[in-house]
Amino acid sequence: MPTSLALDPRHVLWSAPEPQRAGRPLIVLMHGWSYDERHLFAFAHLFPAQMVVASVRAPYAEAGGYAWFPSRGNPIGSPQPRVANDAAEAVLGWLDTLPPAPSTGLLGFSQGGAMVLQLMRRAPGRFQYGVQLAGFVVDDCQPGDEVLARQRPPVFWGRGERDTVIPQPSPESVVYSGLEHDVAGLEVTDFTAFLARQARRGRHPGQPRRPAATGTTPGNDGISPVHGPPPTGAAPFTSLRR
User: Mean pLDDT for the chain?
Assistant: First the structure.
């Protein structure tokens, strides 16, 4: 395991060429274990048009793809805090190389979902919102926890009712009937609507917006939320689906 992690900028998928990114809100996508930067980028066409999408590759090669937390020594859903912090610092270090954006949001699946929350906890105030799909909270304490408890930035937390990979229930989650450990169906419709709301909050005059996503992902008809979160929850920074 390397002692210092860094993201490879050659393996970042961008929705816009560099000359077209200036002054636009940024959203960073982080895939799950064994996937790569192409996984979540497949949804980028559903995002608000003014957003610049950057889908990054996790630093560890595993199982034909990549991981934020390597399997050895890091049980599923419970990575060593040091490992999670190193991965978060790698993302922050990459972000430091970019020109400032008017706002930055995060979206991740599984391990990438855990990264969303870890980054928000580690650098409170740097990220305006998060989308956490089928992930978990790293079991540690971060200096930003108290800050986020006060600020309560918007976070969408979705998971499948049939998820047996990350099965720990959370009062924060919107749970989707029929959905396994996946990103599909009405969950996609809901989190893209959440992104549209965040874009409206920060839109500059004259910027276009794509129509809100409708329908369900083919092959996942009928997936629907069976219950949603309470107004507030256990996580110190919860403010879901605002």
Answer: 83
Q: Do 210 and 46 touch, CB atoms closer than 8 A? A: yes
The single-letter code of the amino acid at 95 is: L
Q: Please state at what angle helix 111-122 crosses helix 81-96, rounded to 10 degrees.
A: 70
Low-confidence ranges of the chain (pLDDT < 50): 1-3, 203-242
Check if the beta carbon of residue 137 is closer than 8 Å to that of residue 235: yes
Instruction: List pLDDT tens digits, range 66-90.
Output: 999 998 888 888 888 999 999 999 9
What's the token pair of residue 12? Answer: 């970042």
Work out whether strand 155-160 and strand 174-177 pair parallel, antiparallel, or are unpaired: parallel
**pTM attached to this predicted model:** 0.84
Q: What is the pLDDT of residue 46?
A: 97
